[in-house]
Amino acid sequence: MGLCSCSPPRAFCTDACSGGYGRVAEKSACTLRIIAVNDVYELTNLPRLQTLVAKEGRGFANVITTLAGDFLAPSLLSSLDAGRGMMKCLNMVPVDLVCFGNHESDVPYSKLVRRVEEYEGVWL
Question: How are strands ordered across the β-sheet holding 63-67?
């Protein structure tokens, strides 16, 4: 890892020279940025997630977004559409990887199979 361009330089920087977060990587270094969330029950949270992914992914070649379960249920909307609206939004963010949480089993099996098929990322 390189040092920031602050005076004096620091190995860990939260200033603009590092994009505002973390260590400043050498130009030849390979960096993976992981954005991980879980328990996303409402669609109103997803525009903020989309903005976060766009902002924090800027300047990085390797960015993955993960959702660690509990997103298809429980919510008022999922009780009506069995997670269909959530899946559309996750594809739009995009969220790259998801895994099953305990609340995904709240969705009837036949509809859960449809949600798995609709998702454009990878189920873990």
Answer: 33-37, 63-67, 97-98, 122-123
